[in-house]
Design a protein that fits this description.
Elements (H helix, E strand, L loop, with lengths): L2 H25 L64 E4 L3 E6 L4 E11 L7 E7 L4 E9 L20 E3 L6 E10 L2 E10 L4 E10 L5 E11 L19 E4 L7 E3 L1 H6 L2 E6 L3 E4 L3 E6 L5 E9 L2 E7 L3 E3 L4 E12 L2 H7 L13 H18 L2 H15 L1 H16 L1 H11 L3 H15 L8 H19 L23 H16 L6 H18 L4 H27 L2
Parallel strand pairs: 1-6
Antiparallel strand pairs: 1-2, 2-3, 3-4, 4-5, 5-10, 7-8, 8-9, 9-19, 10-17, 10-18, 11-12, 11-14, 13-16, 14-15, 15-19, 16-17
Helix pairs in contact: 4-5, 4-9, 5-12, 6-9, 6-12, 7-8, 10-11, 10-12
């Protein structure tokens, strides 16, 4: 039995089966029904509220002063207060250099958000839509005040804010923009302020309570992401292999990064109490996340209600004495999974850039890739240079493995002679083969080193290239418009298949005919599989194989020259 080739074959097949298994697992996750939202909107449309009440299951709970209650707000199309025609509301639109936001004055919720600095796809000039509420999808960010003096008492009684204007835009000569929504609660003036900054995807959401009444005021600030189970359409990255995570994520005292997909939430409601924290909705390349006050003791709750999923936080109760003013603030992030930015926003939020269990290898790889890019200003060339660097680091163990392969290849005629001499007597043949190995100083297992050592690095770099939003819509080599999607002309996968074939020619032929046939089929199988991989990942594999061929060829020539 050719143990060296068998081990290499097992390692390759293990990686293949791992990728295929993850692909199947991902596609077998429960795909939930589409949103039943019937409301569509644009910046000029008025709301058309109706008087129907939601059921108790989907309604906003009564929270007179119950600390344990979690708000469960229906979407505006589910239940809305009746308004006279003279009170019809216009949605509030906000435009910055990075965000296009639509706010509903009824409740002050963000009902639409697109990323001005990220296109939907390369064939369109339209910004990528992250949050929306229409007939096709439901994905919104809600917030409000509950408790004894809160403004959001029930599903039919939410505040209707007034604004100075309905259109806001960040001026060229300003770096900040505040949008104030005002509500008068008797002698208490409440301002809901949205704060935007140039170049930022982080939105400040602040409640300012000016209590001019004769009694103390108390309330609880909540924020909530509400969405349906419809899979977002974001092109790029996955291919025939491990899929990016899509679902909810949260940090807890026990788990710095805990994932709960829609199946988990539907099966069992999740709740945790902690100081600070965050809760996020994660998809490929992008997230939305609520970051409550970090000094507050907050309650987080994730649950399914009808066909929607609620990711909620609630702060501890706060008080505003009579005649005083108090403010409470949270943050809402909606944008790309930029690891550097997320690290600064909240502890462990950067873990939503999900590198899997090999994060301890993947994260340094990304930072090295990022550093190289800061020098060469090309992500394609950065991948190539990173591959060269990795190859240099593993040069010595690779050389040991290739040297063993070269010696095994040189012993090919002797092994064929033994097979002819001993025929089916495998025990005798194995004994004679081991004598030759000892005589020639060959260890068949050392030939596995190049693959076994590089396997964790390959998987880690796979995740780095899969999760890096920096590669999205990044061109390379002229004909590749986007390194995060498959090569449009299959050139890189074909080159990769050719390099695998050349590598096989430089390696010793398997003694087992069945192994030989399987090995001959591998380049074809991998070529087909890599057709669907991101071009950036295939680029890495092509460069890695090419460098391996060069190293193996040099070592083989040296062994052959030794006589």
């Amino acid at each position: 039995m050719d143990w060296q080739r068998a081990t290499i074959l097992a390692a390759i097949l293990a990686v293949s089966l791992l990728l295929i298994r993850e692909w199947v697992d991902f596609n077998n996750r429960p795909q939930l029904v589409e949103a039943t939202s019937e409301q569509s909107f644009d910046s000029t449309t008025t709301t058309d509220f109706n008087t129907e009440s939601a059921s108790s299951e989907s309604g906003f709970p009564q929270v007179e002063d119950q600390e344990s209650s979690i708000p469960q707000i229906p979407s505006d199309n589910e239940t809305k207060p009746a308004l006279s025609t003279e009170n019809e509301l216009r949605f509030i639109t906000v435009k910055t250099d990075t965000l296009n936001v639509t706010i509903n004055p009824h409740g002050g919720d963000i009902i639409a958000l697109s990323l001005a600095d990220h296109l939907r796809d390369l064939d369109s000039d339209e910004p990528l839509v992250l949050l929306e509420q229409n007939k096709k999808a439901l994905y919104i960010a809600q917030s409000g005040l509950i408790g004894k003096n809160g403004t959001d008492f029930s599903d039919t009684n939410r505040p209707i804010f007034s604004v100075a204007q309905t259109e806001y835009q960040l001026a060229d000569d300003n770096d900040t923009l505040n949008v104030d929504l005002n509500y008068q609660q008797g002698d208490v003036a409440i301002t809901k302020r949205f704060s935007f900054q140039r170049g930022e995807h982080l939105i400040g959401v602040e409640y300012i309570i000016n209590n001019q009444s004769s009694e103390n005021w108390s309330g609880i600030f909540f924020g909530q992401i509400k969405r349906d189970g419809q899979k977002p359409e974001v092109k790029g990255g996955a291919g025939f292999g491990v899929q990016p995570y899509w679902g909810a994520a949260i940090t807890t005292p026990d788990d710095k990064y805990k994932k709960l997909d829609f199946g988990d939430i539907a099966e069992d409601e999740f709740e945790v109490e902690q100081t600070g924290g965050w809760v996020a909705m994660v998809q490929h390349y992008f997230i939305s996340a609520w970051i409550p006050p970090q000094e507050s003791k907050n309650v987080f709750n994730l649950k399914e209600v009808k066909d929607a999923y609620l990711l909620t936080f609630r702060t501890s109760k706060f008080f505003v004495p009579a005649g005083e003013k108090h403010a409470v603030k949270a943050q809402f992030y909606a944008g790309p999974k930029d690891i550097d930015r997320l690290e600064k926003i909240s502890p462990y939020l950067d873990l939503t850039v999900d590198y899997g269990w090999l994060w301890w290898i993947a994260k340094p790889l990304f930072h090295i890739l990022q550093f190289i890019h800061s020098v060469v200003a090309s992500w394609g060339w950065s991948i190539i240079l990173l591959t060269v660097l990795i190859k240099a680091i593993f040069y010595v163990p690779s050389a040991i493995g290739f040297r063993s392969m070269a010696k095994m290849r040189k012993l090919g005629p002797k092994m064929a002679e033994l097979k002819e001499r001993y025929g089916e007597d495998r025990q005798k043949m194995s004994a004679e083969l081991m004598k030759i190995y000892r005589k020639e100083g060959v260890n068949p297992m050392t030939g596995c080193l190049p693959i076994l050592i590089q396997m964790p690095v390959f998987l880690s770099l796979y995740w780095v290239l899969l999760e890096s939003v920096q590669l999205r819509h990044t061109p390379f080599l002229g004909y590749i418009d986007d390194l995060s999607v498959m090569d449009p002309y299959f050139i890189l996968p074909i080159i990769m298949g050719v390099t695998m074939l050349i590598q096989q020619k430089l390696q010793p032929a398997p003694a087992d005919p069945m192994q030989a046939r399987v090995m001959q089929f591998l380049p074809i199988m991998f070529t087909v599989m890599f057709i669907f991989f991101p071009a950036g990942l295939v680029l890495y594999w092509v460069v890695n194989n090419s460098l391996s061929i060069l190293q193996q060829w040099i070592i083989t020539r040296k062994i052959d020259a030794e006589g």
